[in-house]
Amino acid sequence: MDNAIEVSGLTKYYGDLLAVDHISFEVRRGEIFGFLGPNGAGKTTTQRMLTTLLEPTEGRIIIHGHDLARDPYPVKRQMGLVPEESNVYTELTAWENLMFTAILYRVPRSERAARARELLETFGLWEKRDVKVENFSKGMRRRLSIAMAIIHKPTLLFLDEPTPGLDAQSARVIRDLIRRLNAEGTTIFLTTHQIEEANLLCDRVAIIDHGRIAAIDTPERLKAAFRRVQSVEVALEPDGQAHGPALEALPGVTTTVKMGDKWRLYTEDPSALLPRVVRYAEEHGLRVVSLNTLGPSLEDVFLEITGQQVGVVRHETEAGGGKQRGRGMRRRQ
Amino acid sequence: MKEGWLQRLQNEVAQAWAVAVKDVKVYYLRPGMIMFGFLMPFFMFFSFSVRREMAAAQGVARLLALTVFFTAAAAGPFIIPLERRLGTYDRLLAAPMSLLTLLLGKAAVGAFFAIGVSAVALIVGVVAFGAPIAHPGLLTAGLLVGSFSFSALGLIFGSIPTRNPGDVQMPSTLLRWGLLFISGVFIPLEEMAPAARAVAYLSPLTYAQDLMNHAVLGAGLLTPWLDLLVLLGSGLLFLLPAVLMHRRSRRLGY
Ligand SMILES: Nc1ncnc2c1ncn2[C@@H]1O[C@H](COP(=O)(O)OP(=O)(O)OP(=O)(O)O)[C@@H](O)[C@H]1O
Ligand SMILES: [Mg+2]
């Protein structure tokens, strides 16, 4: 059997709120499977169901051939779990945290110390082994929490957004480590809301939003969709609805959306579009108040893939944005 | 990699033990634990005992019942919601051990604390006030069984689906006070009106007090075996709602 995880019809209601809506997918043994979606998409909820922490409302989860609802015990021994928040015991030292986890996961007594030492060295924490974790930085805690998740050499490792909030250096260390674990045969289930991270790491990516999966494919093939929803955002003075058709007529623009005082121009090639926008402003005697290029947002990727109109859905969950998008949307035919 | 049931049992015991030892290390110095666990029984003791003339041994028996009761029952409602908030509880829930093992480990934490605090109370009583102990063996058994039972009582409140220890403190304190005031701790059973005594039998603390009377003073109203049995039975019974509420938490997502 080649699948590490098989999920069918998985659903979770929190009261009336439908957080995960009948999703089905498989994760193959030995792959890095990305679970990509914006905030509130249902990623953590799904991962918590896969790791027995949350009871599904409906649906079936089979891990390594065991039905999780009926037979969780053998599966739990093979799973490692790195949650969203580094859940380490801050009153204990790094060493004590690892030893405790080793007992919980039944690492044989004779192997515990050696494993802990090896991990602490790999993660650059060996010098700090006897320091209480309350004195650790965020990155060190994250590394320790990953070390704790793999001390029993799991064959299936779940990571919930392992890198946000870390500096580039720490994030790279963690990504390298994920690759290495995978090369050694560990199946990885990686939850993230960073498109770039999914691109860098994953063999296949599922895109989830509002509790539903829009697509599962290789990052390479999803990239086309990512590219189509890049954009240039411009604010002009004086502003007016009349700019809409004119901006949309610029070469390379696929869609224009009015957002407050800004126009968002979707394009596959933002850098080529920038000078055209500037020229448009010059030719019409307009002042460019602001001009930005934006990478693909997950919401947009999701809409693009599901064939809906980009820019029409509420965007308050968009990462880093929080802006409400206008509805003055046009699509070039 | 099939393991036998004996191996599995051995593992589960080791896991419960690790959970308990870890919790003792992590939580004994927390203000919430010190306040509700370590100081409360002494407050209770002094506020209800100062005006009464009492022999040292009587005082020790009462204080032991109170420490076992309050300290043991304080751990669960404090530690579990806190661990839920910090996310460390997920680590325990995801680990390859049964829920019962986890709960027994958590029950052991309260029991350890309670035994520690009552040992202090006992030493002070014996050394400073010269209280005699009638049956040391019975005393030991009583402290062990009593602290397990009340620790399991605390687990019921600790299992309420919440991430905030404050949500749980209120109901658990109310219940503990209720069980305290209907019990035979402050008014000896034999002095109670029959109706009051019937109510007192509903409180497991009554049996703990009677047991301590047997152990320290050498005399009680019930038989010590019955006391032990009731305490043990109620402790096991308390695990049931704790298990059910953990199931509920798993549905709600806490
Ligand atoms: N315990 C809970 N009770 C009620 N609603 C919840 C609970 N946990 C999550 N939700 C809701 O379920 C939805 C999905 O949440 P989830 O945490 O799975 O999203 P996510 O994809 O992990 O988001 P993020 O990127 O912010 O971590 C959200 O609307 C969230 O508010
Ligand atoms: Mg999440």
Provide a short characterization of the protein structure.
The complex is a heterodimer of chains A (333) and B (254). In chain A, 34% of the residues lie in helices and 29% in strands.
Uncertain runs of chain B: none
Superfamily at the CATH H level of the largest domain in chain A?
P-loop containing nucleotide triphosphate hydrolases
Molecular shape of chain A: elongated
Q: Strand portion of chain A, in percent?
A: 25-35%
Number of strands of chain A: 15
**What are the segments of chain A in which pLDDT stays under 50 over at least 5 consecutive residues?**
313-333
Instruction: Name the structural class of chain A.
Output: alpha/beta
**Anisotropy-based shape of chain B:** globular
N-to-C series of helices and strands of chain A: EEEHEEHEHHHEHEHEEHEHEEHEHE
Give the chain pair forming the largest contact, with residue counts.
A-B, 31 and 25 residues
User: Residue share in helices of chain B?
Assistant: over 70%
Blueprint of the fold:
The complex is a heterodimer of chains A (333) and B (254).
Chain A: E1 3-14, E2 17-28, E3 32-36, H1 43-50, E4 58-63, E5 66-67, H2 72-78, E6 79-82, H3 94-104, H4 109-122, H5 138-150, E7 156-160, H6 168-183, E8 187-192, H7 195-201, E9 204-209, E10 212-217, H8 219-228, E11 230-237, H9 243-248, E12 253-259, E13 262-267, H10 270-283, E14 287-294, H11 298-305, E15 328-331
Parallel strand pairs in A: 3-8, 3-9, 6-7, 7-8
Antiparallel strand pairs in A: 1-2, 1-4, 4-5, 9-10, 11-13, 11-14, 12-13, 12-15
Helix pairs in contact in A: 3-4, 3-5
Chain B: H1 5-27, H2 31-49, H3 56-86, H4 88-94, H5 99-129, H6 136-158, H7 165-182, H8 194-200, H9 204-217, H10 224-252
Helix pairs in contact in B: 1-5, 2-3, 3-5, 3-6, 3-7, 3-9, 5-6, 6-9, 6-10, 9-10
The structure holds adenosine-5'-triphosphate and magnesium ion (MG).
Adenosine-5'-triphosphate binds next to strand 2 and helix 1 of chain A.
